[in-house]
Write a structure and sequence with these properties.
The structure holds 2 protein chains of 2 kinds. Chain A is α/β, with parallel strands linked by helices. Chain A has 2 domains: 242 residues, Peroxisomal Thiolase, Chain A, domain 1 (3-Layer(aba) Sandwich); 150 residues, 3-Layer(aba) Sandwich (Peroxisomal Thiolase, Chain A, domain 1), CATH 3.40.47.10. In chain A, the strands form 3 sheets. A 10-stranded mixed β-sheet of chain A has the order 5-4-6-8-1-9-15-14-10-11, sandwiched between helices. A 3-stranded mixed β-sheet of chain A has the order 2-3-7. Chain B has one domain: Non-ribosomal Peptide Synthetase Peptidyl Carrier Protein, Chain A. The longest helix of chain B has 15 residues. Chain B is globular, with a radius of gyration of 12 Å. The termini of chain B are close together. Classes of the chains: A alpha/beta, B mainly alpha. Chains A and B meet through helix 2 of A and helix 3 of B.
Chain lengths: 416, 83
C-alpha cells in the first residue's frame, strides 16, 4: 500500500552506525547474527570476579583523540563511534549542513554508575578523603553525557540529550527523533541508544541479587531466551545510532533509505518495579499497529525483547500470542541470545540487526533455544538457523524496561 | 628528587594527561599552555596527580607558579626533596 502521507510527514532511516559485541558495523553485525555467532565472553568485574558479558571491540581512536577518550566516558565513546559511523553510512557531509538543525537523542538505561563506582574505588585508597575525588566526575556523570560528547566531537549545535527509558531506551531514542522531526524542531536526527553497563559492577550485582544473572560454563550459551534452561540476563555494552530524516529531505539528496518508521507506541504498566505486565504490552503492541494503520497479519518479522528471565519471556510471549496468535504470518526472533542485553542500546541494536531483511528476506535466528519452554511457544519462532521468507514489508520491534515501560517500533520497507 | 627528576616526573604526568601532544620541544621558560593544548581541567589533573603520588597540596593562589615547566620545578623542588 502506498502511503498517503506527504513526504514531509514521513520519517525514514538513512544511516546506521553501531557497536555490538559481535560486529562493529551493520554488515559485520548482520553477518554474525545470520551465522549465529555469539558475542558473549568472560569478563572480570570489580568485586564480582568472573562474569559473562557482551563486550564491544570497535577502535575508539578511529574518531577520538586520546585526550578526548581519557576525558570522556565509555558511553560517550560508544556514542561518538556510532554517530560518526551513522553519518558516514548516510553519506552526509557535515561541513555542508546546518549543524544547529541536527538533534542528538539517545536512549539510556542508566548513566553515571560506572564513574561513581570507579571514583569511590579510587578514594578508598585514600581512606575516603574526598579531596581525591575527580574534578571530571560531574561532566562525566550528568545524564546527557553520551549525547553531549557526540555534539562536542562533531560540532553539532542543535539540541542534545539522553532519554532515560530503562531497556526500552533504544526504541524510544528513535521514536523521540521521529517526533522532533515531525515537529520541525530539527532537520536531521541522530537517534538510538547507548549502554556502558558492563563497566558497572552494580548492574551485574543487582541482577545477581535478583536471581536474574545468567551463568553457563560456555559463555556463548548463557543467554537463552525462551529456553527451559535459561537462568537470567547476560549484561552487554553497545550502541546503535540511526540517521533519521524527513522523506522529502532524504529523496532530495538521493539518500539510501533503509526503511520508514510507520508506527510506534510507548506506554506504562503501572503495576510493578521489575515484573512486566502482558496486558499493557498487548495494549502497546495494538497501539503501534493502530498508529501504523495496519493489522497484525501485515507484520512479517517480530523481534522479541526476551531477555532470558522466566517472568519476562513468558509475559511477552503471552502478549504476542494474544495480538498475533490468530495471524500466523509473522516470523519471530530474538537478538539478545546472540549479544546479551545491551540495555539502553538493545532496542536500537536489535532493530538494526533486522533491517537488512527488507533486502535479503532472511530472518536471523534465536540461538541457544534447545528446549523450548512451552509457555514461550510462538508461531514461526526462528530457531538456531536463519530462514528465508517470501516477503518482508513490515518489521515489528518490541523493547520493554523496568518500572514497566513498554515500547514498539514498526518499520516498513521503503517504497515511494 | 633532583630538579632533573622532578622535571622528568612532570613531563611524564603531562604526557599522560595530554597524550596527543608532542612534549619533546617544550620550552621551560614559556607557559606550558602557550605551547600545547592544556586546559584548566588538564591543569587540575596535574594538581591531582601531585596530590595522589606525593601528597603535595598546591593552594589555588600558587597555581600561577606552575605556569611554566621551570617555574613548576622551582616551586616543587623544596616540596619534593624527600621523595
Amino acid at each position: 500500500m502506498v502511503s498517503e502521507k506527504p513526504e514531509e510527514r514521513r520519517i525514514v532511516i538513512s544511516g546506521v552506525g553501531l557497536a555490538a559485541p559481535n560486529g562493529n558495523n551493520l554488515p559485520e553485525f548482520r553477518s554474525s547474527l545470520l551465522a549465529g555467532r555469539s558475542g558473549i565472553q568472560k569478563l572480570n568485574v570489580r568485586y564480582m570476579g568472573e562474569v559473562l558479558a557482551g563486550i564491544c571491540h570497535f577502535d575508539p581512536l578511529k574518531y577520538q583523540r586520546k585526550k578526548e577518550l581519557r576525558r570522556g566516558t565509555r558511553a560517550g565513546s560508544i556514542a561518538i563511534y556510532c554517530a560518526q559511523e551513522a553519518i558516514a553510512d548516510a553519506k552526509l557531509d557535515l561541513a555542508g549542513l546546518d549543524r544547529s538543525r541536527i538533534g542528538v537523542y539517545l536512549g539510556i538505561t542508566e548513566h553515571g554508575t560506572v564513574e561513581t563506582e570507579s571514583e569511590i574505588y579510587q578514594i578508598k585508597q585514600f581512606d575516603y578523603d574526598v579531596k581525591y575525588w575527580s574534578h571530571h566526575h560531574n561532566p562525566r556523570v550528568v545524564a546527557n553525557n553520551p549525547a553531549g560528547e557526540v555534539t562536542l566531537n562533531l560540532g553539532i549545535t542543535g539540541p542534545h540529550y539522553t532519554i532515560g527509558a530503562a531497556c526500552a531506551g533504544g526504541n524510544i531514542g528513535l521514536i523521540h527523533s521521529l517526533q522532533m522531526l515531525l515537529l520541525s524542531e530539527v532537520d536531521l536526527a541522530l537517534g538510538g541508544g547507548i549502554s556502558e553497563s558492563t563497566g558497572s559492577f552494580g548492574i551485574f550485582a543487582g541482577f545477581k541479587s535478583e536471581g536474574a544473572l545468567a551463568s553457563h560454563p560456555d559463555p556463548e550459551k548463557a543467554c537463552r531466551p525462551f529456553d527451559k534452561d535459561r537462568n537470567g540476563v547476560v549484561v552487554a555494552e553497545g550502541g546503535c545510532i540511526f540517521v533519521l530524516e524527513r522523506l522529502s529531505d532524504a529523496l532530495k539528496r538521493g539518500a539510501n533509505i533503509y526503511g520508514e518508521v510507520v508506527g510506534y507506541a510507548i506506554n506504562s504498566d503501572a503495576t510493578d518495579f521489575i515484573f512486566p505486565s502482558a496486558e499493557r504490552q498487548v495494549e502497546c503492541m495494538k497501539l503501534a499497529l493502530s498508529k501504523a494503520s495496519i493489522s497484525p497479519e501485515d507484520i512479517d518479522i517480530i523481534n522479541t525483547h526476551g531477555t532470558g528471565t522466566i517472568e519476562g519471556d513468558v509475559a511477552e510471549c503471552r502478549a504476542i500470542r494474544e495480538v498475533f496468535g490468530e495471524y500466523p504470518n509473522a516470523y519471530m526472533n530474538n537478538t539478545k541470545s546472540l549479544i546479551g542485553h545491551a540495555m539502553g542500546a538493545a532496542g536500537a541494536l536489535e532493530l538494526a540487526g533486522n533491517l537488512p531483511s527488507f533486502e535479503d528476506h532472511l530472518v536471523h535466528p534465536t540461538i541457544n533455544l534447545d528446549h523450548l519452554d512451552p509457555e514461550c511457544s510462538l508461531n514461526n519462532l526462528v530457531i538456531n538457523e536463519p530462514i528465508r521468507i517470501d516477503k518482508v514489508d513490515y518489521i515489528f520491534n518490541n523493547s520493554f524496561g523496568m518500572l514497566g515501560i513498554n515500547s514498539v517500533v514498526i518499520l516498513k520497507r521503503f517504497e515511494e | 628528587m633532583t630538579k632533573e627528576q622532578i622535571k622528568d616526573t612532570l613531563l611524564e604526568i603531562i604526557a599522560q594527561i595530554i597524550p596527543d601532544e608532542d612534549l619533546g620541544n617544550l620550552k621551560g621558560d614559556i607557559p606550558i599552555r602557550e605551547q600545547v593544548e592544556l586546559d584548566s581541567m588538564d591543569f587540575l589533573d596535574i594538581i591531582m596527580e601531585l596530590r595522589k603520588r606525593y601528597g603535595i597540596e598546591v593552594p589555588e593562589d600558587d597555581y600561577m607558579q606552575l605556569a611554566t615547566l621551570d617555574g613548576s620545578v622551582a616551586y616543587l623542588a623544596p616540596r619534593m626533596r624527600e621523595h
